[in-house]
Specification:
The structure holds two protein chains of two kinds. Chain A contains five helices and five strands. Chain A is of the alpha+beta class. By secondary structure, chain B is mainly alpha-helical. In chain B, strands 1-2 form a two-stranded antiparallel ribbon. A two-stranded antiparallel sheet of chain B has the order 3-4. In chain B, α2 runs antiparallel to α7 and α5 packs antiparallel against α7. Classes of the chains: A alpha+beta, B mainly alpha. Chains A and B meet through β4, α3 and α4 of A and β4 of B.
Chain lengths: 154, 213
Amino acid sequence: MATYQLNVNGQRKQVNVDPSTPLLWVLREELNMTGTKYGCGISACGACTVHLDGIATRSCVVPVSLINDRPIVTIEGIGADPVGRTVQDAWVDKDVVQCGYCQSGQIMSAVALLKATPKPTDTNIEESMGGNLCRCATYVRIREAIKSASQQLK
Amino acid sequence: MLSSSRFFIRTLLLILVSTVAWIALTASAAIEVPEFKKLNADANRRDGLAAWQKVYSVLTSPRCINCHTATNYPQQGDDRHRHFANVIRGPEGKGVPGLNCISCHQSANADSTGVPGGHNWHLAPLSMRWQDANDRPFSSAVVCRAVTDRSKNNGLAGPALIKHHEEEALVLWAWNPGLRPDGSMRTLPPLSHAEFVAATRTWVEAGTPCPNK
């Protein structure tokens, strides 16, 4: 076991966990932040996506020991960011969600895309969102919501 | 009488040394004839090519060539299959905004989750592809020409190639590739790192010769 000081959504958090523990489980089990979802556990589905130092990151495969002082932003905190708020609003406006399980990860990836590419093409969207799977196949509405958010962010 | 005898011995020694030096110089001049030069050059090239083949065996091993693809994606595994999760090369070989290489590959191997890692994880540029678009490794000659072409290899001359093979973090990673998700060790390249660097040095010192075909 080891003690780690984490910066989660701008707040300092201390956890005492095994160094090999994936960030996902630190968030969910130690900090009770269950908005970030466990999907596949092997970074294949994107449900566990958070931002680590601004980079969309698969929290299920990143041990807490490798995080160091990089800030973490989760679905619970992304609404404080103007791009994050706009994306969440677009998600609601376009009624993207069906079962909703994957949508935390979808939104985190979409925000990362729009921060890097404010006016994404269809190809940009397909490539950047290609690692986020949706069992309900809400892909068409996800694309619409990203385009809508992009328009709002003009 | 004694002094005359010493003078005689010294003179004799001087003559002897001069004679030996003359013979040595004559012999060395004989070696410098064109035939001998050609033999030396041939032997040097032969050694260099043999060393290159060792280097090539490492470059085309999965730990190296999986990130020297000609396609829009990296490969993984000893069978060099396409990287899972729809991973894309991206404009700089580092993935795309929602799915960067560092979305999973951190600064070090994550043995608890089986994800390899190293500093600045990324794909080699397309100019340094070592395989064709059907994932078949290029021949030794083609890879050699690419590696020695400074317009393709980021301007690396011979000594810089040695340094690259000796010190670059992602090159070194190949000999410390971490554990697979099932907990077993990833396969290493066919040579040790020391042997790889030694072969690179021999090849560079021979003038980086490449096979003709």
